[in-house]
């Protein structure tokens, strides 16, 4: 089912925009508001963002060691020395290798290249492979691309063998660097430098830019830009500064490419060259190149991108197509098997970090499947394959959890591991699989199901506005991708008029929504048939979030991003004769709405719990509320009894209801807050306090606080009682044994989950029922 609980986060822009910003956007206020909401506020920078002709790229020699590397390559060309290019098997590595092979050979260099095989070599430069390649090609220069920054042993061997070693890479730097002759890596630049986000293919291009300019052949550079655009998108590089600039001009060249391998590949993918966008690279061209690196030998992709033989190009394109189909089939099979494992074995599915292994799984696609499992289970996932003594695979994180750090804490049971916070690779002895699961369970003991990050909403529009004119307007913000996501629109208060599936296998979802005036919009979710929400949406009003683009026939294509359930919109609900209720539970910007209400009704009391008193002095907890004509229910109550008690105590004639989640998003955060509150009662309040004080501090029900105090008393050795709504607690009691402590923990979690369920209920239940007298 589609997630209908994810928080939506509207991007904020001032009500009055700077006229210079609007002018920089060609007078389009919507585009200006979107850009300002995304943090673009300087008119000159906005003009450069929208138009590459207005952007001033950084010179190649800003990159440390690049001029020296360029000069060494010029010398190699002059002397007739051979250059061995060492690449990588992902698409960034493929395109960087192809760019250097093409760029150097066209200006007279004698080149050979090697791309590691994922299954045999893994990433990097294996010493035995390097020796083999040196013996086969007898090079004088070793030039790396998209790799090399951590290859100390290989670099030392190459230099002892008499080679000049030139590293071009973009991966993170270690504490020390290899002893190469030149190390060209944008991570050596200070944070914020416009070249710092370049991927491997971007670094390779900057090297060729300097070399071509030195040799007076800079006019020939544009033919390399199609590869730059392809690598930037496929590597999911952050599209900012020079990286965005190179992508913008690179896409123009890609649409007119004369590279016969690329035209063959686009024809196989059924993409007209003039219709190439960053999205179509990401969803159609990139996966075909990626498949060859995962399923076979990535050298085939480099050959495709550099061949001048039309017949060979079409043969290679067909090979890549077959490998991509094979990849999709194997991915689906592994994904199905993985979810079957999770359904059969609760010990696997309940683990804070999911770790799955099957001896027959293809390790080349495990990262893709691990990512899907992480998204579906809302927790990090590790998938491993291999039937021998050594097993290996990929890890993917979720919700900002640092999976790389977690694996580093288990380094003693791993053979290899590397990556970054969101993704990592690893290998270990098969006999240590159970131990790895145990260690990760301890490392992530406090990790619960992580919430999906808020969904940014760029603008709220009406259904009639979702037209080709809007598509044209937002296309000025393209290309879209990492660092510049597609514009996300929201339309509020619609109903479902039609639902269905389409595609040869019926795997895609089609929803048609309609507003009160009868305007409709067809929404598509590729691969979303299994998530069909039509039963959830029947006879309901809801909001939709989506992106807009043009389909291949030139019509509007709206891609569904998220759904948010709501009741039929009735902004003001009259409870019989006495109380007026304003429903702000679907408000896109609650803080702004709250400010407006307070400016107009300063006498209103704000009921908001678990917030810091120092940071939010106007917020009141339940024990601090007094009779008042206006009440703002800012945080959702933990149960109906609390809500009724507050309404009786305040007895307002007007209520504004927001019902936000309290600022304690997890069970662990609640327990930490309760622990602090209990310690405060013991140490500063003489061991006595009203239960309502603790309830307000933790935004919890009385039942949850009682269960929490019982658990803490058992854990810490405290004596307590909760008679007549008062907590009395002191130190010095016996600590409970494991069985008693476990039982207390289970009772606490059950009470906590009951409150969480009520808060979900509070968000959708008609307020007439909740707040009736």
Q: Can you describe what's shown?
A:
This protein is an alpha/beta fold and 773 residues long. It folds into 4 domains: 53-224, inorganic pyrophosphatase (n-terminal core) (Alpha-Beta Complex); 345-443, Roll (Diaminopimelate Epimerase, Chain A, domain 1), CATH 3.10.310.30; 458-566, OB fold (Dihydrolipoamide Acetyltransferase, E2P) (Beta Barrel); 570-773, no CATH class. Mean pLDDT is 90; it is low at 568-577. A hairpin with a 4-residue loop joins strand 8 (381-385) and strand 9 (390-396). A 6-stranded mixed sheet has the order 19-20-24-23-21-22. The protein has a 5-stranded parallel sheet with strand order 3-2-4-5-6, sandwiched between helices.
Secondary structure layout:
Layout: E1 8-10, H1 19-24, H2 29-37, H3 43-50, H4 66-79, E2 82-86, H5 91-105, E3 110-114, H6 127-137, E4 141-145, H7 152-160, E5 164-168, E6 182-184, H8 200-214, H9 225-234, H10 241-254, H11 260-268, H12 278-295, H13 299-306, H14 310-344, H15 346-349, E7 354-358, H16 366-377, E8 381-385, E9 390-396, H17 403-408, E10 416-419, E11 423-429, H18 433-443, E12 455-457, E13 459-460, H19 468-474, E14 488-502, E15 508-514, E16 520-525, H20 534-537, E17 541-550, E18 556-566, E19 572-575, E20 579-583, H21 590-600, E21 605-607, E22 619-620, E23 630-635, H22 640-650, E24 654-660, H23 667-684, E25 688-690, H24 691-698, H25 702-716, E26 718-721, E27 726-731, H26 738-764, H27 767-770
Helix pairs in contact: 4-8, 5-8, 5-9, 5-13, 6-7, 8-9, 9-10, 9-12, 11-14, 12-14, 13-14, 14-16, 23-25, 24-25, 25-26
């Amino acid at each position: 089912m589609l997630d209908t609980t994810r928080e939506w986060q509207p991007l904020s822009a001032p009500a009055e925009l700077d006229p210079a910003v609007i002018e920089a956007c060609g007078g389009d206020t919507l585009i200006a508001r979107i850009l300002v909401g995304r943090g673009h506020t300087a008119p000159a920078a906005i003009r450069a963002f929208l138009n590459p002709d207005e952007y001033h790229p950084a010179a190649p020699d800003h990159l440390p060691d690049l001029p020296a590397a360029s000069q060494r390559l010029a010398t190699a060309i002059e002397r007739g020395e051979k250059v061995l290019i060492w690449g990588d098997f992902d698409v960034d590595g493929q395109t960087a290798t192809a760019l250097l092979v093409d760029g150097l050979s066209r200006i007279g260099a004698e080149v050979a290249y090697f791309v590691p095989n994922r299954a045999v070599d893994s990433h990097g430069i294996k010493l035995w492979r390097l020796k083999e390649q040196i013996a086969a090609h007898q090079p004088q220069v070793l030039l790396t691309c998209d790799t090399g920054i951590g290859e100390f042993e290989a670099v030392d061997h190459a230099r002892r063998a008499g080679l000049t070693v030139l590293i071009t890479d973009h991966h993170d730097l270690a504490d020390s660097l290899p002893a190469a002759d030149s190390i060209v890596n944008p991570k050596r630049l200070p944070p914020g430098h416009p070249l710092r986000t370049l991927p491997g293919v971007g670094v390779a291009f900057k090297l060729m830019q300097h070399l071509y300019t030195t040799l007076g052949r800079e006019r020939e550079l544009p033919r390399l830009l199609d590869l730059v655009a392809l690598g930037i998108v496929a590597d999911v590089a952050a599209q900012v500064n020079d990286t965005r600039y190179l992508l913008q001009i690179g896409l123009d060249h890609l649409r007119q490419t004369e590279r016969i391998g690329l035209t063959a590949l686009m024809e196989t993918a059924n993409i007209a060259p003039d219709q190439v966008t960053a999205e179509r690279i990401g969803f159609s061209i990139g996966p075909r190149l990626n498949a060859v690196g995962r399923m076979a030998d990535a050298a085939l992709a480099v050959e495709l991108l550099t061949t001048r033989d039309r017949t060979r190009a079409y043969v290679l394109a067909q090979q890549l197509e077959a490998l991509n189909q094979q990849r999709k089939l194997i991915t689906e099979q592994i994904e199905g098997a993985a979810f079957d494992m999770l359904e059969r074995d609760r010990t696997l599915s309940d683990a804070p970090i999911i770790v799955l292994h099957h001896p027959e799984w293809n390790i080349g696609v495990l990262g893709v499947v691990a990512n899907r499992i992480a998204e579906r289970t809302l927790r990090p996932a590790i998938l491993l394959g291999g039937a021998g003594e050594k097993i290996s695979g990929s890890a993917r994180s979720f919700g900002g959890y640092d999976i790389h750090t977690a694996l580093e804490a288990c380094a003693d049971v791993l053979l290899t591991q590397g990556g970054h916070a969101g993704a990592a690779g690893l290998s270990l002895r098969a006999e240590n699989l159970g131990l790895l699961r145990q260690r990760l369970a301890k490392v992530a003991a406090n990790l619960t199901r992580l919430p999906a990050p808020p969904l940014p909403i760029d603008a709220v529009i009406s259904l009639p506005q979702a037209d080709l004119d809007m598509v044209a307007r937002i296309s000025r913000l393209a290309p879209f991708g990492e660092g510049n996501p597609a514009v996300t629109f929201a339309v509020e208060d619609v109903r479902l008029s039609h639902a269905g599936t389409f595609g040869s296998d019926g795997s895609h979802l089609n929803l048609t929504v309609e507003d009160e005036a009868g305007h409709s919009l067809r929404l598509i979710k590729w691969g979303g048939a299994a998530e069909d929400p039509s039963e959830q949406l029947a006879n309901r009003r809801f909001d939709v979030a989506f992106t807009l683009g043009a389909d291949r026939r030139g019509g509007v294509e709206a891609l569904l991003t998220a759904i948010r359930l709501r009741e039929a919109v009735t902004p003001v609900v009259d409870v019989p004769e006495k109380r007026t209720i304003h429903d702000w539970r679907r408000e896109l910007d609650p803080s702004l709405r709250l400010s407006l209400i307070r400016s107009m009704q300063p006498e209103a009391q704000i009921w908001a719990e678990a917030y810091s008193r120092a940071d939010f002095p106007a917020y009141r907890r339940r024990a601090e509320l007094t009779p008042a004509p206006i009440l703002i229910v800012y945080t959702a109550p933990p149960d109906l009894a609390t809500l009724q008690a507050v309404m009786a105590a305040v007895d307002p004639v007007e209520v504004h209801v927001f019902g936000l989640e309290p600022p304690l998003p997890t069970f662990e955060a609640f327990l930490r807050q309760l622990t602090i509150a209990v310690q405060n009662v013991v140490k500063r309040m003489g061991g006595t306090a009203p239960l309502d004080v603790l309830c307000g501090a933790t935004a919890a029900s009385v039942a949850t606080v009682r269960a929490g105090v019982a658990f803490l008393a058992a854990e810490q050795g405290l004596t307590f009682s909760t008679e007549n709504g008062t907590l009395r607690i002191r130190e010095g009691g016996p600590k409970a044994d494991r069985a008693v402590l476990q039982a207390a923990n289970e009772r606490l979690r059950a009470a906590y989950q009951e409150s969480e369920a009520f808060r979900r209920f509070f968000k959708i239940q008609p307020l007439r029922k909740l707040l009736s007298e």
